[in-house]
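[retry 2/3] Hint domain-containing protein: previous attempt timed out, resubmitting with same input.
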Amino acid sequence: MKNNLLSILIFLCCAITTQLLSQRVLAQTASASMTLEQLKAVKAIKVANLDKDTYFKSGGFILDRYEERPAYVFTYSDGITRKIYLYKVFTAEDTKELGLLAIYKNEKSGEIKPFVIPGASADRKAWDAYIDDLKYVGEKEPGLMSTLTFVLSREMAGLLSGGGGKSEDGGGKKKEEYNFCFAPDAPVTLADGSAKSINALNAGDVVLGYDATTKSLAPTRVTKVDTHEGNFTLAGVWLTPISELTADNRNALTAPVLLEATANHPVLTASGRKALGDVKAGEVLYRYDAAANSVSAYHVVRAEKAIRAVKNVYNLVTESGAYLVGETIVLDK
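[retry 2/3] Hint domain-containing protein: success.
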């Protein structure tokens, strides 16, 4: 009897906290009403690496790690480590927030349970589906309900105290922060080494890609071209070959080349994936060497947060996950 009452209390606490959390989170950003079909689609999304995949697009949705939180980790007296990962869910088309995705993982069994938490304005059927998951899925996995309740309660407490990652202007991330893009005239390197403006490319075109595992260049197919309209500021870095910085027999140095994109667009650096706006002078990026048909290391000699403003921006999604803009390796979102 006591166990049943405890389960009911945990269930009610989780449901109430979820409703309050969704109201507070969605009040900070432009939101949309989640439908039952959308809830099912989000629930079916498979995250390849929960610890590394903090932002990605899938099936018309954007998943973004909630306030950039690492996983909540719990180790109970049974010796089993349990984790909860939280993601904000947005529509990819207009970046309106739909709700939250909470993913439970049992480190011993490998069991993974997703819970899609609708926004406060969601369709009633979506909320019914979430409550059913709490009841019929959550209660079958020992430790799941208590960990999920703790995480949602903790986040709710942070929001009530004025924290929770609230930005200086009183809201969450702005719409443009989810648009990782280049100017219309950004030159994309094609498979034959020539270049074409990014706004002239279409899904199905073949460009020169890069495989980070083999560190080799190879043709890759464009699977999607993202286009966004608005006012966007481009950041930029100027690059110079490392060989020129160390050579002592040159009479003149090559003028630095400029790579520009929205500040959040990821590029490949010597230390791994990094947003262009976070790249600093002295860091190393990689560019295409046509003569050797390989990549060469380039030093960043200068970095600026704002180079120019453009109204339309573009991004490619490729099969390899990396392509070349201005002959410099950039990464998919």
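[retry 2/3] Hint domain-containing protein: DSSP finds five helices and 17 strands in the chain.
[retry 2/3] clearing retry counter.
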